[in-house]
Write a structure and sequence with these properties.
It holds the Pfam family DUF2267. By secondary structure, the protein is mostly helical. It contains eight helices and no strands. It has a single domain (3-122), classed as Orthogonal Bundle (Globin-like), CATH 1.10.490. The mean pLDDT is 91.
Amino acid sequence: MNTDDVTDLVRRRGEYSSEDEARRVTTEVLTVLGSRDLGGEAARLAAQLPSGFAELLTDPGEDAGRFGEDEFIERLRGRLDQTADQARDAAHAVLSSIAEAVSEGERTDFMAALPTDLSGYARWS
């Protein structure tokens, strides 16, 4: 998938009104994800993502740390200036779209690198 394909999928899944809003949400989710220590998986995931999104995982603005769903959502909520429920919806739309944008093998590795309480966000039913 290219950048426009990923953005459009996020827009549809998140029910965002514009591509710009979907791109902003995607940028913020990937920035928070990039600040989480994924044990080297971030670089492998980034290698399969389109330019513009890949760099957000390999050049985090914050020190990488290990944290679960609560802190992930809290960081995202603050960056998006939204409620926790809206931040959860954004995480679900973006992480599931990213998981769909990469190969099956990379998807499996990405899911395994996420803590259990975050891996459900990368699945779309």
